[in-house]
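Handout, page 2. Input:
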Amino acid sequence: AVVSTQSTGAQSSYLVRVDSSFSLKLFQYQAIHHLVCDMKQLFMLACGGRSVSLVDISCIDDLTVEVPEKRLHDWIISVQWISQERIAVLFSYNSVSLLDGNLTALQNIQCDSCCIIYGGCIS
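Output:
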């Protein structure tokens, strides 16, 4: 692994290179819970709580935030690239959103049952 999260007190909102002291703060108040890479485009999605961010990993010596922290409407359970320009997000209140490359919602799908889910995976 080239990058990991770094714990700072109760939060781990920093992305760090494991071979140096370089770090990149992604979220103001949320910990990072998921890192999902798209190695074809050299981008990484970072998610935590209701926050998501897109990081350019094409130059590992200079990680940059492509799309800054975006707060979504619900707690994120899982995220997955479904194409080069589309991202699916599973939320805790049993809904899925389709996002574009700017992390803007294109479509929202709500299940008939609005129960809380505590785990899930999009594949």
